[in-house]
Automatic annotation (TrEMBL):
This is Acetylgalactosaminidase. Its cofactor is NAD(+). The lineage of its organism: Bacteria, Pseudomonadati, Bacteroidota, Sphingobacteriia, Sphingobacteriales. Residues 441-470 are annotated as: Disordered. Residues 460-470 have a biased composition (Basic and acidic residues). Residues 185-341 form the Glycosyl hydrolase 109 C-terminal domain. Belongs to the Gfo/Idh/MocA family. Glycosyl hydrolase 109 subfamily. PANTHER family: BCDNA.GH03377, GLYCOSYL HYDROLASE FAMILY 109 PROTEIN. The keyword NAD applies. It holds the Pfam family Glyco_hydro_109_C. The keyword Ligase does not apply. Keywords: Glycosidase, Hydrolase, NAD. GO terms for molecular function: hydrolase activity, acting on glycosyl bonds; nucleotide binding. InterPro entries: Gfo/Idh/MocA-like_OxRdtase_N, Gfo/Idh/MocA_oxidrdct_glycsds, Glyco_hydro_109_C, NAD(P)-bd_dom_sf, TAT_signal.
Length: 470
C-alpha cells in the first residue's frame, strides 16, 4: 500500500482548504476543551450505506467479501496502490452478481476517490502509518470512517482523530478489535448482569507467532510490518487484547485508564532470523544489524477507580496463539485461553454448567447472527458480526458500539508503551480522550431492541480464502 508518508501527508492536504494539521498537545487547553460528545451519538439514518474500501492487501479482500453479504450496502469504490489487487477485489463483487465498484489505484488513488465519490463509509485496511491520516481525511470529506487497528500511532494522531470526529460529527470506529468474539461477548453480558460482581483486574494479549510471516517476501507490502518492528519498541498491537477487557471494565463509560508502565524483553529471534535469511538471499541484507523490538512486552495499566489491566504482546516466540481474555471479579472469574472456563470459587464450573451459562447469557446479537457469521467467516465470524452491527447502526440511526474514544484510548497504548520501555519502565500518563465525559457516558446496549433489521444476502459458496485470520 502507500509507503511514502511525507508525500502522503502532502497529498492529504488537498482534501480541504486547510492541510491536516496535528494539534499541539502541550497546549494545556486542548485536552480539556469541551467538544461534542460522540459517545451515544446517533448519526442520521442511511438507507443504503455507500462504502469505499481502501487497502486490498492482507485484510481488504476479506472486508469486501464480508460487506458484500450485508443488505443495505453498496460497495461503490475500491482502492489500492496496486491495480491488480483492485481487479481481484472486483471479482469478489462480480462473482456474487453485484455491481462492479469504481476502481482507483496508484499513490494518489485514495485522494481522487474521496474527491469524486459520494461515500457514507470509508473502510480502511492500509498499513498502520496511514490509518489516522486516512480516517481524518475521510471524515473531513463527509464520510464515517472504519479503520483496521490501530487508529493512530502517536498521541497527537489519536487526539486529532477524536477532534475531527467531534467537529464533523462523523463516526470513526476501529475495526478487527475482537470485541465481537463469542466468548468475549458472553463474558461481557455476564458482567453486565452482575455475575462476576465488581471486576477488579483483567488481562488481554496478542500472542501470535508471526515471525515467518513478518519476514515473508510475499506477505506485507514492502515488508511494512517488519519495518514497524524496527521503528517501534513497545506493545505494537494492544488493541486485540485491550478492547474486550476495557469494555468489560466500562473504560470510557464509568471508569478510565490513568497511567501505565511497560517492560519488554530483548529481541532473541528477529535479528537472528534476518541474518540467517540474508546469508541465503541478499534481499534481506537491509534488515541485518537492525535493532528489533523485543519478544514479549508486558504493559500494566491502572484505572481511576483503582483497577488494573495487563496487556501483553509477542509475535515472535514459538508458542500457541492467545489473547488471554482473563477477567477477575469479586464474585467470579473467567478466562478464554488455553481453554474457556468460568469459575465462581476455587474451581471452574463443569462443562454442563458452562453450556448452561452460555445458553442463558449469550447476547441477543450473537443468538441472532452468530451462526450466519460463522458461515461467512473472518476470525471465526466475529469480523462479520462487527461489520453487520456497524452497518445496522448506521442504517437505523443508532449510536455505534465502539465510538472514536475507544479506538483512541486503546491505540494510544502503542506510543505510550514505547515511551515507558524507552525510559526504563517509567510510569506514563494516559490521556482522557473523553475529556471527563467518562463519568456520565453509559455502556452501550447489548440488546437488539433497536435495529436488528438489516438483512443478509445468501452465502454463494463455502470458499473462505478471502478471510485472513491474523
Amino acid at each position: 500500500m502507500y509507503t511514502n508518508r511525507r508525500d502522503f501527508l502532502k497529498k492529504a492536504s488537498l482534501l480541504s482548504s486547510a492541510a491536516i494539521t496535528l494539534p499541539v498537545i502541550n497546549n494545556p487547553g486542548y485536552a480539556t476543551a469541551p467538544g461534542f460528545n460522540m459517545w451515544g451519538y446517533a448519526a442520521p439514518k442511511i438507507d443504503t450505506v455507500r462504502i469505499a474500501v481502501i487497502g486490498l492487501g492482507m485484510r481488504g479482500p476479506g472486508a469486501v467479501d464480508r460487506l458484500s453479504y450485508i443488505e443495505g450496502t453498496e460497495i461503490v469504490a475500491l482502492c489500492d496502490r496496486h491495480a491488480d489487487r483492485v481487479a481481484k477485489a472486483q471479482k469478489i463483487l462480480i462473482n456474487k452478481g453485484l455491481k462492479e465498484a469504481k476502481s482507483y489505484s496508484g499513490d494518489e488513488g485514495w485522494v481522487q476517490l474521496l474527491k469524486e465519490e459520494e461515500i457514507d463509509l470509508v473502510y480502511i485496511c492500509t498499513p498502520w502509518e496511514f490509518h489516522a491520516p486516512m480516517c481524518i481525511a475521510a471524515m473531513k470529506a463527509g464520510a464515517h470512517a472504519a479503520c483496521e487497528v490501530p487508529i493512530g500511532l502517536t498521541v497527537k494522531e489519536c487526539w486529532e482523530v477524536v477532534k475531527v470526529s467531534e467537529e464533523t460529527k462523523r463516526h470513526c470506529m476501529m475495526l478487527e478489535n475482537c470485541c465481537y468474539d463469542f466468548f468475549e461477548m458472553l463474558t461481557l453480558n455476564m458482567i453486565r448482569q452482575g455475575m462476576f460482581g465488581e471486576l477488579v483486574h483483567a488481562e488481554g494479549a496478542y500472542i501470535h507467532d508471526l515471525l515467518s510471516l513478518n519476514f515473508a517476501k510475499n506477505g506485507y507490502d514492502n515488508m511494512w510490518r517488519l519495518r514497524e518492528n524496527i521503528k517501534m519498541n513497545g506493545n505494537l498491537y494492544p488493541t486485540h487484547g485491550i478492547g474486550p477487557i476495557a469494555q468489560c471494565m466500562n473504560i470510557n463509560s464509568g471508569d478510565r485508564m490513568t497511567h501505565l508502565v511497560a517492560m519488554q524483553t530483548a529481541d532473541f529471534q528477529m535479528g537472528d532470523k534476518a541474518r540467517k535469511l540474508a546469508a541465503e538471499d541478499p534481499f534481506f541484507q537491509e534488515f541485518v544489524g537492525k535493532k528489533y523490538r523485543g519478544n514479549m512486552d508486558t504493559t500494566l495499566i491502572k484505572t481511576e477507580k483503582g483497577k488494573t489491566l495487563l496487556v501483553q504482546h509477542d509475535v515472535t516466540s514459538p508458542r500457541p496463539y492467545s489473547r488471554l481474555h482473563l477477567l477477575s471479579g469479586t464474585k467470579g472469574f473467567a478466562q478464554k485461553y488455553p481453554k474457556e472456563g468460568i469459575a465462581f470459587g476455587h474451581s471452574f464450573v463443569k462443562e454442563e454448567e458452562l453450556t448452561s451459562l452460555k445458553e442463558k447469557y449469550t447476547p441477543q446479537l450473537v443468538k441472532f447472527i452468530g451462526e450466519k457469521a460463522k458461515e461467512v467467516g473472518g476470525h471465526g465470524g466475529m469480523d462479520f458480526m462487527m461489520d453487520w452491527r456497524l452497518i445496522d447502526c448506521l442504517r437505523n440511526g443508532l449510536p455505534i458500539e465502539q465510538p472514536v474514544y475507544e479506538g483512541a484510548s486503546w491505540s494510544v497504548i502503542v506510543p505510550l508503551s514505547c515511551e515507558s520501555v524507552a525510559k526504563n519502565s517509567k510510569t506514563v500518563h494516559i490521556p482522557d480522550f473523553t475529556k471527563g465525559a467518562w463519568k456520565t457516558n453509559q455502556p452501550h446496549d447489548l440488546s437488539l431492541k433497536e435495529g436488528g433489521n438489516t438483512g443478509i444476502r445468501p452465502k454463494v459458496s463455502k470458499d473462505k480464502s478471502n478471510q485472513l485470520d491474523v
